[in-house]
Every structure is written in structure tokens, then in C-alpha cells.
Amino acid sequence: MSRIDRASRTIAAPPATVYDALLDRAALEAWLPPEGMRGRIDRWDPRPGGGFRMVLTYLDPTDNPGKTSDETDVVDVGFAELARPARVVQTAVFQADNPAYAGTMTMTWRLAATGDGTEVTVTATGVPPGIDQAVHEEGIASSLANLASYVEGGE
């Protein structure tokens, strides 16, 4: 059975609001980088078949060297499916010389209305073997916490 990394969180906002934050360039730059990183989007095309390139920079790369350089992870993300307001499917390819980070990872963001807002579940398949599962799931959970703060704070 292939590996599946996942995390979920209930966010106090309607699915349409959460969905919009998944497809807004400034929003993604603000909330997607997990704790200990900052992000910049270099290319942006928010449509099915489009995508973006994100440069993630480690604030302290001492114990966590980047995949692309000592300080960065560069990832090309494609929008495989956009189903407003319920689902976003992305493909992600890291720019890295190390074959342990090669391949295309699929990230599926599912949004389901709940009495308290939106249950957001993220599943990742095809995760490159060089990415530790526990660290990856922690990073997804960190991004979800940032997303919650972003949309609940009304930014």
C-alpha cells in the first residue's frame, strides 16, 4: 500500500471562504508556509491546468536543510482539479538534485461544511521518500493552523 500523509482541522469559516484562501496568491503566501518558513510565489495561474511556483525559505536551516538549496525548497504546483467550494487537487514537484525528493506528489484539499464551519482534510499521495512522514504531517498541520488564523481573523 502506498503512503498517505494527512492532516485535518475544523476552521470557523464557511467552505467558500476557505476555498477562496486556497486560490488567492497573497493569502497563500501568508498562510501556506509552515512554522519556521516564509514563502514567495514567483509564478501564478489560478485555473485548472495552471498553477504556481513557490519558494519556501527556512528561517533557520541549521537542522533542516532545504531540498533545492541549503535554505530553500522550490516547488512547482499544478492545479489538477478545482471544484468550488469542496475540493482542490494539486500536483507538486520539488526542484531538487537529490532523487529522494523526485516525483510528483498529489495534495488533495477537501472542504466539508460542519456546524462549526469547515472541516478541511488534506491528503498527500506520491510523497517523495526523502520527506519524513511525521515531519510532513506536522508541516501540513502547521499550514492548516495558519489557514485557520488567516480566514478566522478576516485578513
Would you summarize the structure shown here?
With 155 residues, the chain is of the alpha+beta class. It is built from 3 helices and 7 strands.
Please give a handful of descriptors for the protein shown.
155 residues, alpha+beta, 41% strand, single chain, 7 strands, 3 helices, seven-stranded antiparallel sheet
**Side-by-side strand order of the widest sheet:** 1-7-6-5-4-3-2
Computed Rg = 15 Å
Would you tell me the overall average pLDDT? 93
The residue ranges in which pLDDT falls below 50 over 5 or more consecutive positions are none
How would you describe this protein?
The protein has helices at residues 15-22, 25-31, 133-152, and strands spanning 4-11, 37-45, 51-58, 72-83, 87-94, 105-114, 117-125. It is an alpha+beta fold.
Topology:
Blueprint: E1 4-11, H1 15-22, H2 25-31, E2 37-45, E3 51-58, E4 72-83, E5 87-94, E6 105-114, E7 117-125, H3 133-152
